[in-house]
Specification:
Blueprint lengths: L3 H22 L2 H25 L2 H20 L4 H32 L2 H26 L1
Helix pairs in contact: 2-3, 2-5, 3-4, 4-5
Length: 139
């Protein structure tokens, strides 16, 4: 029979299949947007867990956001592909991602909602630029 645990597990598996299918058919640009969306979701979950005092879940959510920023967004930067003109931009983005990771660490260690909010705002500013690029490319 269906239990609430089975429903959550089944729904989670279904969601993972959807994300995996989207990732397999996504362009490199869309993959970056998906990373931003994943980081935003993780930060939102961290915010919720911080507010409800769920320390372990908060830490897990922030760790996930840090992983996405550091091992996804920052790792995807390619100074060689950016060329001479784009190398400075890549360096600035790399430094900004490092700063965001620092803010997320602070949020985790000190239950600092403002640090969490700052990281979220900074990521959203970059993500909105990526989304705008995608919209212009489509038109």
């Amino acid at each position: 029979m269906y239990t609430s645990h089975n429903m959550r597990t089944g729904a989670g598996a279904y969601a993972r299949v959807g994300v995996e299918t989207s990732a397999m058919s996504a362009s490199p640009h869309q993959l970056i947007v998906m990373l931003f969306d994943g980081a935003k979701t993780a930060i939102g979950m961290a915010r919720h867990h911080m507010a409800t005092g769920e320390i372990e879940a908060k830490g897990n959510a922030i760790s996930k956001a840090i992983g996405i920023v550091d091992n996804g967004l920052k790792a995807a930067l390619d100074a060689k592909a950016a060329g001479e003109a784009g190398a400075e931009l890549v360096g600035n983005l790399s430094a900004l991602y490092d700063y965001i990771v620092q803010r997320l660490f602070r949020a985790n260690l000190h239950n600092d909602v403002q640090a969490l909010e700052e990281a979220d705002r900074l990521l959203e500013n970059i993500a909105s630029a990526w989304r705008e690029i995608d919209e212009r490319a489509r038109s």
